[in-house]
Design brief:
Keywords: DNA-binding
Protein name: TetR/AcrR family transcriptional regulator
CATH class of the largest domain: Mainly Alpha
GO molecular function: DNA binding
Organism: Eiseniibacteriota bacterium
Shape: globular
Structural class: mainly alpha
Number of strands: 0
Pfam families: TetR_N
Strand content: under 5%
């Protein structure tokens, strides 16, 4: 079973994942073939299929690594003894740094994911949102965020995801990265200038 073999870890498997990550984020998903991944990684197709069912299965593994890294970063920043707005800025910058390494082709394919990928993307988003909501609830308990119904905050986050997927709005920005940054800043800092006191 591939999942059992993965759990043991493998330098060759890791190298395939790292190589595929670079190729996918630079050129997009559809353009890159398994043959190209194997050639760039110096691996045979037999080795590839030892660890992965297909290209989408490999992509799922890449996404899982990104999310696991994101969870570690979330916990690390949350544990810092710094003001909450600074925590939010660091989280946003972390995400923007990750997104900045992704080409427009890759981001476009994720936004408009194929049926084979869409279900997994939605599953990972739901898991990520659940983890982030726990972070928000802790912040509310500490008094770092005003208390609001979690369902309302969740609805706003979902609405913002729809905005990120709006191609017409995206054309107003130099690239989708800048649009995503604006959405995040709007969610967490509102429309007032940074540092301005609220009534």
């Amino acid at each position: 079973m591939k999942s059992a073999r993965r759990s043991k870890g493998s330098k060759k498997m890791d190298h395939i994942i790292e190589t595929a990550t670079e190729l996918f984020t630079r050129h997009g998903i559809r353009r890159i073939t398994i043959e190209e991944i194997c050639r760039a990684a110096g691996a045979s197709k037999m080795t590839f299929y030892k660890y992965f069912d297909n290209k989408i299965d490999l992509l799922r593994h890449i996404w899982e690594r990104w999310f696991d890294e994101g969870y570690r970063m979330l916990d690390e920043i949350d544990a810092m003894n710094i003001p909450f707005p600074e925590k939010m800025r660091r989280l946003i910058e972390y995400k923007m740094d990750l997104v900045s390494r992704m080409s427009p082709e890759f981001l476009g394919e994720v936004v408009h994911a194929s049926p084979a990928l869409a279900a997994f993307v939605e599953e990972m988003k739901a898991k990520n949102l659940s983890r982030f909501m726990a972070f928000v609830e802790k912040a509310q308990e500490r008094g770092d965020m005003r208390v609001m119904k979690p369902e309302f905050f969740l609805a706003v986050m979902n609405a913002m995801q729809d905005i990120v997927h709006d191609d017409r709005l995206a054309r107003l920005y130099p690239d989708r990265l800048e649009m995503i940054r604006e959405v995040h800043n709007f969610i967490f800092f509102g429309i007032l200038p940074v540092g301005e006191k609220r009534g």
